[in-house]
């Protein structure tokens, strides 16, 4: 009895402490940059060696990198997961692929950066560009999208598949008209989490796609671009203190985007679990 | 004597090494209700799933002997075509998480019907046949998972009827329903038996006796007795059948 009560109190303190720390960090970082954010900051180019002006090219660049990454990883990842859950036999090869996928998800992003540099920038000759950086981020998010989609598909009740087959549907019709739509909400949740991760990634872009400073937005996918996280890295690592307001503003913008994404995920999850109950 | 729709000869079913159904030979009459009864694990659901080849989905499954739908050996038929002729309703109501209308039109759509007017007519006809139309006609665009369990099961029957099958296989269709919903389904089965051949697996012996014309009694993979419901209840041939009827094992 007493042990239970102690355990409850100790565990409770730890978890509330954790939440408080997270709220403090995120809250502090967002608030400290909030007064540096205004329309001009969001919509203009950096000026005067980045000590003045805004972060417009970084926001746009992040959107470009993200688009290329998703264009690659979402279709590829979903189709791979569909194969693994619906078509492949449950054998050693399938387990091997799933295990390899999980290992891939645990590889540090800087390694993906090196990989992208060697494959896309050098071997394919894309150089430092939106496409090289986007594809690198795409590859990095692929294992996550595969494993999340696979889990979502496996969670679709067998009875849906049986009902579809019993009506004379074949495997592909059952998969694409019943199973995928039934899990689409969960698959989408996974994609949003992947977006949150891609947006914050710095290391892969430093190798493959990030420009230090540009004065014109990229005109094609083969041009380099700025990105929010790499911009933050550049400002904090390379510049002396005179860019602090710009740095704080950039951090704040990035965090607001990421927090908004994860909050939307939390809301979707709540809605889903309520739908399951009702 | 009515014509038989299924002619089954020396049917044996195996799951890997397990011999699930042994040497079953029988003929299932057309446009009658045939109830398949027996204690748990006797192979009655397996038998039902032989008829529309749903067992094919299980990798270790195989069967020997002959199962003919009218004059065609089912193993030689395209399973997609076979299942168009044979509708199935499952133990737990399993409507797709789509609208009521989409549930009913899914089958016709995959069989190539695209005309909206035709699909609407099919929806109305199938839901009327399943005695659900009056309850849902104003909410066809609502999600089917919001219906009650009994309504969901009638929707599943409507969905099975939408592709105009000849046979309806029902796998313990009322075991997850309350008594009132069960009664509605039983009434429905009687109505449907005028047009369709119905094979129903049931755990509920009283139900089998109420609604069926013939009864198949399975015991440990063997077809012990198959006769008219009247004959089975009044004067079963086999001791095991009469034991089962008296509730000695269930």
- Hey, which two chains have the biggest interface? A-B, 19 and 28 residues
Biggest sheet details of chain A: 2 strands, antiparallel
Q: Indicate the low-confidence ranges of chain B by residue numbers.
A: none
Q: Which stretches of chain A of 5+ consecutive residues score pLDDT under 50? A: none
CATH C-level name of chain B: Alpha Beta
CATH H-level name of chain B... which superfamily?
P-loop containing nucleotide triphosphate hydrolases
Whole-number radius of gyration of chain B?
18 Å
Cα Rg of chain A: 22 Å
CATH topology of chain B: Rossmann fold
Q: Can you identify the CATH superfamily of chain A?
A: MetI-like
Distance between the termini of chain A: 36 Å
DSSP strand content of chain B: 25-35%
Overview of this structure, please?
- The complex is a heterodimer of chains A (278) and B (250).
- Chain A has 278 residues and is mainly α.
- Chain A contains eleven helices and two strands.
- In chain A, helix 3 (56-87) runs antiparallel to helix 8 (171-200) and helix 7 (158-166) packs antiparallel against helix 8 (171-200).
- Chain A is globular, with a radius of gyration of 22 Å.
- The model of chain A has no long low-confidence stretch (mean pLDDT 90).
- Chain B is of the alpha/beta class and 250 residues long.
- In chain B, the strands form two sheets. Chain B has a six-stranded mixed beta sheet with strand order 6-7-8-3-9-10, sandwiched between helices. Chain B has a four-stranded antiparallel beta sheet with strand order 2-1-4-5, covered by helices on one side.
- In chain B, strand 1 (4-15) and strand 2 (18-29) form a beta hairpin.
- In chain B, helix 3 packs parallel to helix 6 (149-161).
- The two termini of chain B are 32 Å apart.
- The mean pLDDT of chain B is 90.
- Chains A and B meet through helix 7 and helix 8 of A and helix 2, helix 3 and helix 6 of B.
């Amino acid at each position: 009895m007493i042990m239970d009560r102690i355990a409850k109190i100790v565990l409770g303190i730890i978890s509330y402490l954790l939440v408080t720390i997270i709220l403090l960090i995120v809250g502090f970082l967002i608030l400290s940059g909030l007064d540096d954010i205004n329309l001009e900051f969001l919509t203009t180019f950096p000026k005067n060696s980045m000590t003045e002006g805004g972060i417009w090219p970084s926001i746009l660049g992040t959107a470009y990198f993200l688009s290329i990454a998703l264009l690659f990883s979402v279709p590829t990842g979903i189709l791979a997961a569909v194969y693994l859950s619906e078509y492949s036999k449950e054998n050693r090869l399938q387990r091997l692929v799933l295990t390899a996928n999980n290992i891939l998800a645990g590889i540090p992003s800087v390694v993906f950066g090196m990989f992208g540099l060697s494959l896309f920038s050098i071997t394919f000759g894309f150089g430092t560009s939106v496409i090289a950086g986007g594809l690198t981020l795409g590859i990095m998010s692929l294992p996550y999208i595969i494993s999340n989609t696979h889990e979502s598909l496996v969670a679709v009740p067998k009875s849906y598949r049986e009902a579809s087959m019993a009506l004379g549907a074949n495997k592909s019709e059952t998969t694409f008209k019943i199973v995928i739509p039934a899990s689409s909400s969960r698959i989408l949740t996974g994609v949003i989490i992947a977006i949150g991760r891609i947006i914050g990634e710095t290391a892969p872009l430093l190798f493959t796609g990030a420009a230090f400073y540009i004065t014109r937005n990229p005109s094609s996918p083969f041009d380099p671009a700025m990105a929010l996280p790499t911009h933050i890295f550049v400002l904090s690592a390379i510049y002396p203190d005179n860019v602090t307001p710009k740095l704080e503003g950039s951090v704040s913008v990035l965090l607001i985007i990421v927090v908004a994404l994860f909050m939307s995920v939390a809301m979707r999850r709540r809605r889903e679990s309520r739908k399951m109950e009702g | 004597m009515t014509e038989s729709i299924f002619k089954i000869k020396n049917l044996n079913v195996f799951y890997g090494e397990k011999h699930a159904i042994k040497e079953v030979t029988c003929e299932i009459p057309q446009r009658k209700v045939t109830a398949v009864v027996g204690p748990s694990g006797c192979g009655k659901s397996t038998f039902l799933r032989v008829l529309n080849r749903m067992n094919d989905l299980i990798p270790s499954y195989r069967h020997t002997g002959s199962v003919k739908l009218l004059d065609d050996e089912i193993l030689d038929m395209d399973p997609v075509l076979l299942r168009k002729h044979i509708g199935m309703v499952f133990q737990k109501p399993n409507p797709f998480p789509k609208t009521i209308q989409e549930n009913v039109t899914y089958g016709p759509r995959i069989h190539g019907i695209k005309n909206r007017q035709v699909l609407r007519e099919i929806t109305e006809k199938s839901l009327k046949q399943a005695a659900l139309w009056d309850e849902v006609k104003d909410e066809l665009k609502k999600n089917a998972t919001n219906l009650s369990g009994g309504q969901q099961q009638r929707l599943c029957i409507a969905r099975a009827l939408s592709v105009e099958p000849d046979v309806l296989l029902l796998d313990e269709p009322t075991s997850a329903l309350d008594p009132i919903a069960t009664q509605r389904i039983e009434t429905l089965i009687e109505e449907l038996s005028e047009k369709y051949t119905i094979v129903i697996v049931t755990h509920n012996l009283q139900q089998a006796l109420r609604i069926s014309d013939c009864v198949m009694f399975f015991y440990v993979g063997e077809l012990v007795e198959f006769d008219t419901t009247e004959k089975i209840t009044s004067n079963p041939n086999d001791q095991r059948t009469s034991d089962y009827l008296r509730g000695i094992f269930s």
